[in-house]
């Protein structure tokens, strides 16, 4: 693993999205609906649904919203969303990978293209940047919620089947093979750890610093993509700020 740390960035993005909580819940409802529709409404028998529910809870989504999305899937709604990815470059040559759930591919493709071009980026072809990212399971444990030191944490992560542990002053960040993610998550919970975050994500193999004169454009591009109702996740290879 590179030294890329997600937790600092996740906290920053979540804080910035507090004012957009309704939009975040809408996107999570769409994910829950699709997971329940494709794999069944029982999270114990549907690992994808359980993962999305955990993600929703970490975003403080009300239980009633979660239940409504599952009931909608159970009720045989004809709504359908296609999973689509978009790839491109932000100002400064920073790779960007976008995941969307959409009921109108043409609309979403047009909106994503406009977001890139209006903010100094360029949309690329399928496969143009995907190879620069690795799909990983990602788990965070807030250090204030555990007495475990780094040595104990490392032993427990390895016993659980995790691939890598990164430690900062405020968090333990654990990376796993995507196929082992659920097993590692469950093992750590069984060991008594409280998880601050647990999700499947895309981790850049290498990072690129955003030039100072491109930072504002870069942030506007990410904001424009995240503001799109159809965009679920935006991953970039931007280097962490000090």
UniProtKB/TrEMBL annotation:
Compartments reported by the entry: Cytoplasm
Chief location: cytoplasm
Keywords associated with the record: Cytoplasm, DNA-binding, Transcription, Transcription regulation
Keyword Iron: no
Matching Gene3D superfamilies: 1.10.10.200, 3.30.70.980
GO molecular function, one term: DNA binding
Keyword Nucleotide-binding belongs to the record: no
Residue span of region Disordered: 1-22
A GO CC term assigned to this protein in UniProt: cytoplasm
Pfam families, sorted: TACO1_YebC_N, Transcrip_reg
Boundaries of every TACO1/YebC-like second and third domain copy: 81-236
One example of a Gene Ontology biological process annotation: regulation of DNA-templated transcription
TACO1/YebC-like N-terminal domain location: 5-75
InterPro entries on file: Integrase-like_N (IPR017856), TACO1_YebC-like_2nd/3rd_dom (IPR048300), TACO1_YebC_N (IPR049083), Transcrip_reg_TACO1-like (IPR002876), Transcrip_reg_TACO1-like_dom3 (IPR026564), YebC-like (IPR029072)
PANTHER family assigned: TRANSCRIPTIONAL REGULATORY PROTEIN YEBC-RELATED (PTHR12532:SF6), TRANSLATIONAL ACTIVATOR OF CYTOCHROME C OXIDASE 1 (PTHR12532)
Entry's family note: Belongs to the TACO1 family.
Official protein name in the record: Probable transcriptional regulatory protein LABF125_07830
Record organism: Lactobacillus amylovorus subsp. animalium
Phylogenetic placement of the source organism: Bacteria, Bacillati, Bacillota, Bacilli, Lactobacillales
């Amino acid at each position: 693993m590179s030294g890329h740390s997600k937790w600092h960035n996740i906290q920053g993005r979540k804080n910035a999205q507090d004012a957009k909580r309704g939009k975040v819940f809408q996107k999570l409802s769409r994910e829950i609906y699709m997971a329940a529709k494709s794999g069944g409404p029982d999270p114990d028998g549907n690992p994808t649904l359980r993962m999305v529910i955990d993600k929703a809870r970490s975003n403080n989504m009300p239980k009633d919203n979660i239940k409504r999305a599952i009931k909608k899937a159970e009720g045989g709604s004809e709504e359908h969303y296609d999973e689509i990815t978009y790839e491109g470059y932000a100002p400064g040559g920073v790779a960007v990978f976008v995941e969307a759930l959409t009921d109108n591919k043409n609309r979403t493709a047009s909106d994503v293209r406009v977001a890139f071009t209006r903010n100094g980026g360029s949309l690329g072809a399928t496969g143009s940047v995907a190879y620069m990212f690795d799909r990983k399971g990602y788990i965070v444990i807030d250090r204030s919620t555990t007495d475990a030191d780094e040595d104990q944490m490392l032993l427990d992560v390895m016993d659980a089947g995790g691939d890598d542990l990164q430690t900062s002053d405020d968090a333990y960040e654990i990376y796993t093979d995507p196929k082992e993610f659920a097993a590692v998550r469950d093992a750590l919970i069984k060991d008594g750890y409280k998880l601050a975050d647990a999700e499947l994500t895309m981790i850049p193999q290498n990072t690129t610093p955003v030039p100072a004169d491109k930072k504002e454009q870069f942030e506007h591009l990410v904001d424009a993509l995240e503001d799109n109702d159809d965009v679920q996740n935006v991953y970039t290879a931007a280097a962490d700020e000090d």
